[in-house]
Specification:
Elements (H helix, E strand, L loop, with lengths): L9 H5 L11 H8 L17 H8 L6 E6 L5 E5 L6 E6 L13 E3 L5
Antiparallel strand pairs: 1-2, 1-3, 2-4
Amino acid sequence: MIGQISPVNVLDTLFPREAKLDDYTEDMWIEKFKPLCVKDSAPHHFDWCDEEDRDFLDNVNEHHVWTFVECDNDNYAILPGFRRVNRLFYYVTLAPWSDRDRDSIIYCRDDLD
């Protein structure tokens, strides 16, 4: 007989880690990494399903790419690099993320996208 499975946060399961001092708020992330923006200053998102966006992303260094993902309970996060699980779209930043940032998780308000 299989025991009960309790719901857990997908990100905590996929990326277990202790809380880090260098996790960023959305505003800190925008200030530090400088995502490409559209004319109204909102970060531009790239859709993997769009052929033009996909061609652009294929030519961008992974250290300039961040993935916007959906988490449990209608929460959202931004993760460095190309992620596929729960991805909604990608951001490209002017400043690259480093190996030190690889495990960073930026939890988001749902109005960031």
